Amino acid sequence: MSTINVGAFIDGTRAASKKALREALRDNPASVRFDATTAIGPDVGAEFTGDALPQDRMLVVVGPNPYNARNWYANVELTGKGVRFDRKAIPAAKPAGGGAAGAVKLSGLTDLQTKALRETLTPDELEGVTLTTTTATFTREPGAMLAIVEAAQRRAAEAHGGGAHPARSLHPVIRKLRAIAARAAVPAT
User: Fold this and answer.
1) 170: which DSSP letter?
2) Residue 68 falls within a domain, yes or no?
3) Is 83 in the same domain as 106?
4) How far is CA 59 from the centre of its chain?
5) Do 120 and 160 reside in the same domain of the chain?
6) Does 95 fall in a domain?
7) Given pLDDT bands bounded at 50, 70 and 90, which one contains residue 92?
8) Domain limits at 120?
């Protein structure tokens, strides 16, 4: 497999990070444009978009700017099995809507936060919720799940006081859900 040294743009701006590039390739490949940086050979001036990558050629991406800010490197390739980023398959974008394919996962939670979710959510509210000691995965829309957790926090505050567990332990969960709900509410451009 041959390689092409490139820079990357997302919606006309240099990709700020590997994470931003990977997410753009997953969520909106047409927004990504690669420009060859070679000064000689058949690839001079070549450009590719994220939805029209060359088959069986690896793009060696230097970012954020391949000419004067070489802070990170990534390999992007289109194989017979799909797009790979640093030798790993890029998962398909999560569709809007409920169901496992549209699941929202909160990670980095504490044991007390997941315990608070277990203690405050009703059996109906817990349907479609998977909890581990550090994660919570919801199959409902982020806005709907936010409303459910806020209602559970109000119930817990009435029963135990707002500054005590479990009401207090739900604050970080609610902040994370608010951020995800806000991002989900912004229409794609």
Assistant:
1) G
2) yes
3) no
4) 22
5) yes
6) no
7) low
8) 100-185
Looking at per-residue pLDDT, the higher value among 118 and 182 belongs to 118
Residue bearing tokens 């391949």: 66
Lookup: tokens for 109: 């939670």
pLDDT for 127 equals 85
Are 113 and 120 within 8 A, CB to CB? no
Note whether residue 143 is domain-resident. Answer: yes
Structure tokens at 140: 């409902």
CB within 8 Å of 135: residues ≥ 6 apart:
105, 106, 107, 109, 114
Q: What is the mean pLDDT of residues 139-154?
A: 90
Instruction: Give yes or no for a contact between 6 and 36, defined as CB atoms under 8 angstroms apart.
Output: yes
Please check the confidence at residue 39 and state whether its pLDDT lies above 90: no
Q: Which amino acid is at 143?
A: G
For residue 16, being part of any structural domain is answered with yes
pTM, rounded to two decimals? 0.49
Residues 10, 42: one domain? yes
pLDDT digits (tens, 9 = 90+) for 73-85: 999 987 766 778 8
Q: At what angle do helices 111-120 and 142-160 cross, to 10 degrees?
A: 80
Q: What one-letter code names the amino acid at 158?
A: E
Do residue 144 and residue 107 come from a single domain?
yes
Q: How many residues does the chain have?
A: 189
Instruction: Tell me whether strands 69-79 and 2-10 are parallel, antiparallel or unpaired.
Output: unpaired
Q: Which residues contact 177 (CB under 8 A, 6 or more apart)?
A: 104, 106, 142, 145, 146, 149
Q: What is the rounded distance in angstroms from the CA atom of residue 63 to the CA atom of residue 10?
A: 12
